Amino acid sequence: xxxxxxxxxxxxxxxxxxxxxxxxxxxxxxxxxxxxxxxxxxxxxxxxxxxxxxxxxxxxxxxxxxxxxxxxxxxxxxxxxxxxxxxxxxxxxxxxxxxxxxxxxxxxxxxxxxxxxxxxxxxxxxxxxxxxxxxxxxxxxxxxxxxxxxxxxxxxxxxxxxxxxxxxxxxxxxxxxxxxxxxxxxxxxxxxxxxxxxxxxxxxxxxxxxxxxxxxxxxxxxxxxxxxxxxxxxxxxxxxxxxxxxxxxxxxxxxx
Length: 256
Fold this sequence. Notes:
By secondary structure, the protein is of the alpha/beta class.
């Protein structure tokens, strides 16, 4: 049956993807990747599919060498890759240390690209790559500037790669949710407490994942968006100038 691989599996959206893939009962194993080994190991008691914890910090370059060695040793048949690792920070350029922003770029962009391209040689026709993206990928977002820019990369890269992989019969899909109830908000805090204070709609991670799992099997779907308000916002961003979109965002967040 092959295996599924999920990064960022210790919490949030990544963990929900593990649960969803486990329910499909299609895989011999699910490889789960994140820094917190104890959180990964706890999935063994929560899933019926055999769970293989692989504790790696994907913001560290050496982790990719470890991952490549594991792939070469096991030579798996990867049916699904879910890249759900990532983080964001709220604040202006003055509030976020450049080293933190670089780490954000490394994890959200570099790690996602490396995990995808190191895994692709082990994927066959009918396989899927699911990239956790964001609504912020469609527009510039002041006070989440670097995070939004990393997600714009994910959207562009995923859609282009989806076209490149069509001859191989491998589908790539970007998952672009709005606000989701996860640990993201704890990790995103900085000294700039009022950077982002308005959240129009907050969704449950399991519901966003359920939509993504359905969209994964739709033939011409390369972007998954959960919730009508988010879909309408994406439409608005496509139709209106970005200058106006940013002005609306700043007003919502009570910034002049």
